[in-house]
Structure formats: structure tokens, C-alpha cells
Design goal:
By secondary structure, the protein is an alpha/beta fold. It folds into 3 domains: 55 residues, OB fold (Dihydrolipoamide Acetyltransferase, E2P) (Beta Barrel), CATH 2.40.50; 155 residues, P-loop containing nucleotide triphosphate hydrolases (Rossmann fold), CATH 3.40.50.300; 54 residues, Orthogonal Bundle (Ribonucleotide Reductase Protein R1, domain 1), CATH 1.10.40. It has a 6-stranded mixed sheet, sandwiched between helices. A 5-stranded mixed β-barrel has the order 1-2-3-5-4. The chain starts with 11 loop residues before the first strand and ends with a helix. The N terminus is likely disordered. One of its GO terms (molecular function) is metal ion binding. It is found in: Cytoplasm. It is an enzyme of class 3 (hydrolase). Its cofactor is Zn(2+).
Length: 295
């Protein structure tokens, strides 16, 4: 079946599977791929978006409308927003011991996901690197203890521990460059052929190989979105009041401070500070929360 439909033909629903600036690859219900632009000068279309499209020529189309989103994962600063993916049900935060990962970035990803009620899973990749992996496991055990699944894999050897977590989900891979996201994606989707690159030992960093987001179907009910590596994750769109709630282990203590407008920084009678002093919550997590509040 050819994707072309005569001008004036009926609209159809499609799924955005790739974003290239203001051009979008849209998959129709019949499995056809159309290269589309957005009507007018509007942008803001993301991988995972469901859209109404109208074919305008062979393999070409126009996005007429965005459908309502279930979730929207994005980062922001005071000046702009960067959409990562739409309608995802879980985020796979990929970290590795080499190069060094940012624990602050992990916390920021978790907050963004919690603010949208998106499930979070931590994947510790490169477990074939035994000694550095042991150190990373000790650090990440904190997140496992508070309820986030921590999956240990080696993308070049065995990814089977991750596969059950992907069933019946639209997942998005997120993390810094060099964590092995593309290698992981290639192992999950052998035909993906995402570019990979060596890490820089001198700079303790990875090379930026993924330049655009792309959705891949795993089966009829499961899909995964690979996104470019991120080095910063702004949370300007999450209010100070909501940030505390996004630390899931803080929730039993919120509302129990001496002062109703407590910011949990250094106020007397702060339930979170008392909980940290008593070992009920992590000093480290409280420190990351307070650092966010002070910026």
C-alpha cells in the first residue's frame, strides 16, 4: 500500500517515531512511514506523540494536530524547554562506572519522572568491568533501598535481566554520553544500528553519538525510545513545593514539620532533617534536595 493519498483525503492517526529538528518521521496504523512537517511554525512534537496527519505526497505529510499526552518528559531552564519523549510509561536511567556518572543527574532524572508519574528504573551497565562496578553498586544501592529497581547488565555480553522490565511499556533511555545507551539499544534491537563510540579516558567522558531521538518497537505492546546523551537536566518546570514530593522516601514526613511553609533547609522542627539525623532517610539525598532548593 502506497503512503500517498490524494489531496483532500481523510486524516489519519500516526505515531511520531523520530524527530529531526522540525521534521518528523511518523508511522501510520498500517505501518507506513511518512516524513512530516508541522502545520504552521509550531514545534514541540516529540518521539512517542500521537498525531493527526494528512498525506500530501508520496511518503510526505503534514501534522495537523497533536493528541493529548499521558506524560511528557522534558528538561528546562529559565529560558527554554527541551522535550525528551511523550507518552512514556517508564524511564530507563543508564549509568556505568566508566566513565564516571553524575549522581546529581540521576536525581534530577528521577525528579522529572516522578513529577509526571513515570516509573523509573536504574540500569548499571558495563558490569563486565568488575572492580569499578562494585563501587558503583555500593553508591546505587541507596536508590534500590528506597524502591527503584536496579538492573545490572553488560550491553556487550548479556542484557537479559532488563528485558522483562520492558514488557508492555513505552520506555525511554536516558543518561550521560558514554554510559552505553546505544550499545544497549543495539542489543535490544539488533537492526537499530545506533552509532557507538569509544570513551575518552583522559577526559573521563563519553562521545556524543546519538543526535536525535528514535522510537523502536520491541513487540506489539512494547517500545523503547533512544535519546541523545544529556550532561545537564534542568528542572525549572518543577515547583519548589513539588520537588520534595518527588523524593519518594520523603513523602511520609512531608506535612509534619513545625512550620507549614518549611523548605527543609535549616528550619527548626523540620521533619526531614530530624528523619535524616535519625537515619530514616539518606543524608545524601537530603543534600541533593537542599542543593536544588538553593538554586
Amino acid at each position: 500500500m502506497n503512503a500517498f493519498q490524494p489531496h483532500g483525503s481523510s486524516h489519519q492517526t500516526g505515531l511520531v517515531i523520530a524527530v529531526f529538528g522540525r521534521h518528523y518521521s511518523v508511522e501510520t496504523a498500517e505501518g507506513e512511514l511518512l516524513s512530516c512537517v508541522m502545520r504552521g511554525k509550531k514545534g514541540g512534537v516529540a518521539c512517542g506523540d500521537k498525531v493527526t496527519i494528512r498525506a500530501t505526497g508520496t511518503d510526505q505529510g503534514v501534522i495537523e494536530a497533536l493528541h493529548p499526552r499521558k506524560t511528557l518528559l522534558y528538561r528546562s531552564d529559565a529560558f527554554k524547554e527541551k522535550i525528551i519523549a511523550a507518552n512514556v510509561s517508564q524511564i530507563i536511567i543508564v549509568v556505568a562506572a566508566v566513565p564516571s556518572y553524575s549522581e546529581e543527574l540521576v536525581n534530577r532524572c528521577l525528579i522529572a519522572a516522578e513529577s509526571q508519574k513515570i516509573r523509573s528504573i536504574l540500569v548499571l551497565n558495563k558490569t563486565d568491568l568488575t572492580e569499578p562496578t562494585q563501587n558503583a553498586t555500593e553508591t546505587l544501592s541507596l536508590y534500590e533501598a528506597i524502591g527503584y529497581p536496579l538492573i545490572r547488565v553488560s550491553a556487550i555480553q548479556n542484557i537479559s535481566p532488563l528485558k522483562p522490565y520492558l514488557k508492555n511499556h513505552l520506555s525511554v533511555l536516558a543518561g550521560q554520553s558514554g554510559m552505553g545507551k546505544s550499545t544497549l539499544l543495539n542489543a535490544l534491537v539488533p537492526g537499530a544500528q545506533r552509532a557507538t563510540a569509544d570513551i575518552s579516558t583522559a577526559l573521563d567522558s563519553g562521545c556524543h553519538t546519538t543526535t536525535h531521538s528514535r522510537l523502536y518497537h520491541l513487540d506489539a505492546d512494547s517500545a523503547i525510545i533512544d535519546s541523545p546523551g544529556i550532561q545537564a537536566f534542568g528542572l525549572h518546570h518543577v515547583s519548589n513545593e513539588d520537588i520534595a514530593w518527588c523524593f519518594i522516601e520523603f513523602r511520609p514526613y512531608i506535612g509534619h514539620c513545625r512550620f507549614h511553609n518549611c523548605r527543609h533547609l535549616n528550619e527548626p522542627g523540620c521533619a526531614l532533617i530530624i528523619a535524616a539525623e535519625n537515619g530514616k532517610i539518606s543524608d545524601r539525598r537530603l543534600m541533593y534536595y537542599q542543593k536544588l532548593q538553593q538554586h
